Amino acid sequence: MKISYERNGFISPIRILNTDETLLHRQSLEDAETQIGPLHYKFKVHTILRSPYELVTHPVMLDTVEDLLGPNILIYNVVYIIKEPHTLNHFSWHQDLTYGGFSSDQQVSAYLALSPATASSGCMHMIPGSHKEGQLKHVGTQDPTNILLDGQTVEDVDEDDVILCELQPGEASFHHGWTLHASKPNQSDDRRIGLTVQYIATDVRQTLHDADGAMLVRGEDQYHHFQEEIPAASDLNPQALKRREILEHRMNEVYEQGMGKKL
Fold it and tell me: Whole-angstrom Cα distance, residue 87 to residue 36?
């Protein structure tokens, strides 16, 4: 697994959940949406809902990340990515680490499918080996259908070697923070629902903010570079909802500073 990851910059698919388990977690998300509205692209959802916390700490998820990063693992962010049926929302070509402010590239991004991620629903496209090129130039774009915060895009990508990471519900993909990836609009009749998570090694520092947070989920943290975040003890606790808004504001400050330095 690690050899393939080091060669290609990603591994896919990895089976995490069975069909019944996946349906229960999708239902948990959609029940929460009926109470507080859309959860698409809301940062740190594992601090307000038990389901995403349980998913990102699933033993198979953490075993996979440990094989790639080592035994001491922090969760930096957890986000639902939801493309509604027959919408134009998409991700342009980008690298996850570009604006994050991390001191090293010891980071792994994972996408866990809660509904089919297919070519028609807008699954991820990966450029194998692109992580070996390091950070590439991104430009900001004014595209309201681009889900990325600033529409940040790597231009003139050679797509001859693209690999589609199609996933069945309950399967996950894992990719390096410098791996070039994108996803197309959802042309299917179902919601394309995925839970994404950024895992980082405990020795990684935040260089753009003094009060950024993360959560230890395996091993030990001898460095304490991040403020310790609290996992959801129950669903939609009012205090947790307020804390999540503060955490999201801090993350937006990080990305704004990062974009200001790079663009």
Answer: 22
What is the DSSP secondary structure assignment for residue 47, as one 8-state letter? G
pLDDT one-digit tens code per residue, 41-95: 999 999 999 999 999 999 999 999 999 999 999 999 999 999 999 999 988 889 9
In whole angstroms, give the CA distance from residue 71 to residue 65.
8
Measured torsion, CA atoms of residues 53, 177, 100, 165, in degrees rounded to the nearest 10: -60
**Cα separation, 114 vs 191, whole angstroms:** 9
The whole-model pTM stands at: 0.95
- Residue 61: its H or E element: helix 59-69
List Cα–Cα distances, 206 to 46, 102, 227, 238, in angstroms. Answer: 20, 5, 11, 28
What is the residue type of 161?
D
Provide the 3-class DSSP secondary structure of residue 179: coil
**End-to-end Cα spacing for the chain:** 35
Where do the domains of the chain lie, and which CATH numbers do they carry?
A: 2-262 (2.60.120.620)
